[in-house]
Amino acid sequence: MTHVYFDHNASTPLDERVLAAMLPYLREQCGNASSRHEFGTVARKAVDDAREQVAALVGVQPAQVIFTSGGTEANNLFIKGVAATLKPTQVAVSSIEHPCVTAPAQDLARQGWQLRKLRVTRDGTIDLADVEAALAQPTGLVSVMLANNETGVIQDISAVSALVRRAGAVMHTDAVQALGKIPVEFTTLRVQAMTLSAHKVYGPKGAGALVVDKRLDLRALLAGGGQEHGLRGGTENVPAIVGFGAACEIAAARLGDLGPRLAALRDRLERGLHQMGAVIFGAGAPRLPNTCYFAYPGIHGETLVIELDNAGYAVGSGAACSSAEHTPSGTLLAMGVEPELARGAVRFSLGAANTAEQVDGFLQALAAVIRRLRQMKAVAV
Fold first, then answer.
1. Are 307 and 376 in contact (CB under 8 A)?
2. Which of 40, 175, 178, 256 has the least C-beta neighbours within 10 A?
3. Residue 34: its pLDDT value, please?
4. Do 160 and 281 belong to one domain?
5. What is the share, in percent, of the chain residues with pLDDT greater than 70?
């Protein structure tokens, strides 16, 4: 059975053009970008070219791009790297952040900082009144994601940034899910730091970036040979960085076409979901064009994911699993969704290769799975 992939918010397939750009640096071009000979010079130019490609996609100067191993490292570099330059006050993050933001923020809380979780409304957008209330306390740094990885809800980051800057704090956004799906402009968002990742834009895993305001005071997490303007020690992963740059250049070229096409497919999907009685989370808010997060009352999300996988369709579950229990999505709980319904959440995220025929096939398979699960539940009762 050939599986259809509808989990692009988790990771995207490597674009063939990206692979082609990477291959010379996986084969014959083996140089260290810090070496002074010809091989090193070639590697250094490749890294510099990639830096320009990433910078162009988000409208910054190349010197503002710090390459990292991915989004997790970039988020940690911002939170811990900025905190290291400040006296402990308050760190504020939204209540729907990815764990690679909340976990380092919790680390700061163990070091004397006050951690404040910013509320979201029932549609998943940040509560600006709560942001303003939080900033009444002395605050060092704030992080609010541009687009949620589960619901796809897009935040008004420029409005949050205006409040944060007025309070004298440092503003960061995790733009990992937004990049390549909607326009992302560093200056328009008015942030001082922004996180990006390659494998969400048809690039390789193992490459990311923290984009920074040149005036930002930031301390390195990894000490070493002074790479990345002294902010990220360690030999550069040249093939992955080259792939990241190529992926950003491709994303820039097709951004205007891809978003509307994926939005049309997402709308086609949601019409079918509504006919089958699904609850769609964040549907009233601006969302990424490729993302739909839904649930069916009384049907467990993990069960639905497994059954759909057996039917040939890969989707994501909103439940974080442990060996003993299934915990409902923290994002949905923050939105006020009842835990039982939240346990049923399934994330459907489209990509560049998906088609209307695949969406229709998915809906047919989903309908069959829902009928079977409901029949099983009725018999059990």
1. no
2. 256
3. 87
4. no
5. 96
**How confident is the prediction for the chain on average, in pLDDT?**
94
Mean per-residue pLDDT, 345-374: 96
> What is the bridge-based pairing of β-strands 313-314 and 4-5?
parallel
Tens of pLDDT, residues 28-49: 999 889 888 998 899 999 999 9
Contact 345, 329 (CB under 8 A): yes
pLDDT digits (tens, 9 = 90+) for 326-348: 689 999 999 999 999 999 999 99
Query: 30, 248, 292, 321: which is the annotated catalytic residue?
Result: 321
For the chain, what's the residue count? 381
Same domain, 37 and 82: yes
Domain boundary, last residue among 235, 250, 265:
250
Kindly report the CA angle at 284 between 279 and 288, in degrees rounded to 5? Answer: 95
User: In the prediction, which pLDDT does 320 show?
Assistant: 44
**3-state SS, residue 242:** helix
Close Cβ partners of 379 (under 8 Å, ≥ 6 residues apart): none
Distance between CA atoms of residues 182 and 359, nearest Å: 21
Angle at 267 between CA 263 and CA 273, to 5 degrees: 140
SS3 label, residue 78: helix
Residue 155 CB: number of other CB atoms within 10 A?
Answer: 24
Q: Looking at residue 42, which CATH number applies to its domain?
A: 3.40.640.10
> Residue 92 CB: number of other CB atoms within 10 A?
26
d(CA 171, CA 265): 34
pLDDT at 190 over 80: yes
- Say whether 292 is catalytic: no
Domain that holds residue 102: 16-250
- The answer on 168 and 91 residing in a single domain is yes
Contact between 88 and 80 under an 8 Å Cβ cutoff? The reply is no
> Count of CB atoms within 10 A of residue 271's CB?
11
From CA 185, how far away is CA 56, in angstroms rounded? Answer: 10
Angle at 328 between CA 327 and CA 334, to 5 degrees: 130
